Amino acid sequence: MLYIAEPENLGDLLPEEPSYRTDQLKNWLYKHPVLSADEMTNLPTALRDTIGPQLWPFELAQEQVGDGGSTRKWLFLCTDGAQIETVLMGYANRTTLCISSQVGCAMGCTFCATGQFGFDRHLSAGEIVAQVAYANAYLASTPIPRSPARVTNVVFMGMGEPLANYKHTRESIRRMIETMGMSARSITVSTVGFVPGMRKLIEEPWQVNLAVSLHSTIPSERTKLVPINDRYPIDQVVATAKDYFEAKGRRVSLEWTLIAGENDSDEEAVGLAAIARGIHAHVNVIALNPTPLSTDRPPDRDHVRRFIATLTREGANVTLRDTRGQDIDAACGQLRLRAASS
Ligand code: SF4
């Protein structure tokens, strides 16, 4: 019985209370979230005491602050002991939350700390949405200087492949839009190319953004980095991304984690630009955040520049993303990895 996780069932959870109380509580949970039930000042003390211990489906186990205070990385401990990571990033005009959709991940991408851990379980819709509610509650009392004091953008780029947990990812998106009032266009679902989930997303009524992680255009190389390429080959992934663009009118983004000696060649840049041009996609390149269990490293700055220059020359729209949180364990799964090994 977790209040924040089950907004539709609040009436059942509080059978003795008048209906306006459930409306008040809904307001606290999703519209103006607070970290503690003690702050729900228009509810009677006895009710706050009842709600308090079950307000969140997790507790904060660890926080790291990086980039001069504009990045917060949280490790949450779920009620069953599972650990998940969430990262809050403040920018001048937006506050972005990177959320997890699974505990671990079954996709096994070689450069990813989460992938190296394997898969434990799916997160429930409540556990996914609670990460957003928690960030909003946190920002209400501790805003990031010069950034909006509310989550303006959500990206499913934390632990897990969100489209492999379709049912709960979908329900969490529905709640963000319908209950929390977020715009679908401010939500980005990231996938490593889980084609069945991409197809389902095309059928949904929302214009959420789709980010597809390619990491290599050469099938055999991509299978090495992203083993699911064996099941859903790159041609299928790109064709489905194109269908998404045509169905939604939203430009898909192609994500590329740049790894020295693996996918940073001119050949890869030319191939990537051709795909991007073909499906009118935007390319986001980010230099690898190294993880302790892998020997993979990012290329040096000159090499990164050369890769970007080749993409641009070949006609791709490209953004070089900054690697947030290099002073903390910012790469997806790293905080959990460190917690497990300490
Ligand atoms: S990169 Fe994403 S899909 Fe790949 S193992 Fe890591 S969390 Fe899973």
Explain what the structure shows:
By secondary structure, the chain is α/β, with parallel strands linked by helices. The protein folds into two domains: 1-55, Orthogonal Bundle (DNA polymerase, domain 1), CATH 1.10.150; 58-341, Alpha-Beta Barrel (TIM Barrel). It has twelve helices and twelve strands. The protein has helices spanning 10-13, 19-31, 45-51, 113-117, 125-141, 166-178, 195-203, 219-225, 234-248, 266-279, 301-313, 334-341, and strands spanning 58-66, 71-78, 83-90, 95-98, 102-104, 119-122, 153-156, 187-191, 209-213, 253-258, 282-287, 317-320. The strands form two sheets. A ten-stranded mixed β-sheet has the order 1-2-3-4-7-8-9-10-11-12, with helices on one face. Helix 7 runs parallel beside helix 9 and helix 10 packs across helix 11. The protein is elongated and about 65 Å long. The two termini are 32 Å apart. The structure holds iron/sulfur cluster. Iron/sulfur cluster (SF4) binds at residues 105, 107-109, 112, 114-115, 159-161, 192, 332.
Task: Sum this structure up briefly.
The chain is 37% helix and 19% strand.
